[in-house]
Amino acid sequence: MTDDRVDSPSVVRRLSSVVWLPYDPRTAWLFLLPVMAVLAVVTVFPIVYSLYISFFSVKLTRPLRQPFVGFDNYLQVVQEELFWVAVSRTVIFTLVSVVAITVIALLIALLLDQAFRGRRLLGALLLVPWAIPSVANGLMWKWIYESHYGALNGLLLQVGAIDHALAWLGDPAKTLLLIANAFIWKEVPLATILILVTMKSIPADLYKAATVDGANRLQRFLHVTLPALKPGFMLVIVFMAMVAIRQFDLIFILTEGGPAYASHVMSWQIYVETFRNLSFGTGAALSYILAIATFALAYFIIRALGQRL
C-alpha cells in the first residue's frame, strides 16, 4: 500500500520541486489597488467632502450660492438652544443604555458560564434579538408600545396593573427610557458574548488559589472575576457608547424626535438640519461635532480602563 503521509519522502521531494514565486510588494499593491479605490470612493471621499462643505453655507433652497463661512456653521449650531437639548438627550440615552447593557450582559454571562441543562438552547435564543435588523426591531417595539392595540397595554390590562390604555410614546417623561429599552434589548446579546468570551479566558488556577485561601463565591467574583473582565468591559462600553451616541433608526421609527423634543438626540438633529431644513453646511458641522465627541469619549474610556489592565 502506498504511503501518502505528508512527511513521506516522495511528498517532500514534490514540495521541494515547486517553484515558489518571490514576494513582490509592487504586485501586492497592484492586487490591493481595486479594493483601495472602492474604499476611497465610498468611504474616504464622503468623509473629506462633508468636512469641506461644513465650512460653507450650503443650502439646497439656494444651490447656486455657497459662500465660504469658515467655522461659522460650528459656532451657529453650538449657540442654538436646541443643540444643547439634543446633547442632554444624547447623554442621558447613552448613559442609561450603556450601564444597563453592561450590567444585564454581565448577569447573563455569569448564568451562561454555569453548567446546567438547556444552556446551549438559552445561548442560541440569546442571539435572536441581535440578529433582528434595526428597522424590524423598531417596528416591533412600535407595535408593543402602541396606545390602542399594543402588546404592552394588553398585557398590563390583563394582569390588572393599569385600568386604561396608556400612550407610552406620548409621555415625554417616559419616551427616552422606552427607546433605550428597545435599544438595550437588541444590543445585550452582543455584549453578553463579549463578556462571556473574556470570562472563559480567565485561568482556572486563579479560582483554585482563591478557594485555597478561603475566599467564598462572592469574594472570588469581586477579586478574581471582575478584575479579569476589564478588557471585556472596556470593549463593551466603548462599542455600545459609540453605537448609542449615533442611534437613529429607533428614534426615526418610534418618535421622530418627539414628543416635545423628548427624544431629540444629536443624530436626529443632524437628520432634521440636513434633510428637512436642507442645510447641508450646518448638518455636516453637526456630524463632525458628533464624530469628534464620539472619538473623544472612546479615547478617554480606553485610557481610563486601559491603565488598570
Detail the topology: elements first, then pairings.
Blueprint: H1 9-17, H2 25-53, H3 72-78, H4 81-112, H5 119-131, H6 134-145, H7 151-159, H8 172-200, H9 204-212, H10 217-228, H11 230-245, H12 249-254, H13 266-276, H14 280-306
Structural description of this entry:
- The protein is mainly α.
- It has a single domain (72-306), classed as Orthogonal Bundle (MetI-like fold), CATH 1.10.3720.
- It has 14 helices and no strands.
- It has helices at 9-17, 25-53, 72-78, 81-112, 119-131, 134-145, 151-159, 172-200, 204-212, 217-228, 230-245, 249-254, 266-276, 280-306.
- Helix 4 crosses helix 13 (266-276).
- The protein is globular and about 75 Å long.
- The model is unreliable at 1-6 (pLDDT under 50).
Task: Summarize this entry quickly.
72% of the residues lie in helices and 0% in strands. The chain has helices at residues 9-17, 25-53, 72-78, 81-112, 119-131, 134-145, 151-159, 172-200, 204-212, 217-228, 230-245, 249-254, 266-276, 280-306.
Counting helices, strands and paired strands, the structural category is: mainly alpha
Unreliable stretches, pLDDT < 50, 5 or more residues? 1-6
From the alpha-carbon coordinates, what is the Rg to the nearest angstrom? 27 Å
CATH class: Mainly Alpha
Sheet with the most strands, sense and barrel status? none
CATH topology: MetI-like fold
Report the average pLDDT across residues: 87
Strand content: under 5%
Key structural traits:
about 300 residues, mainly alpha, MetI-like fold, 14 helices, about 70% helix, globular, disordered N terminus
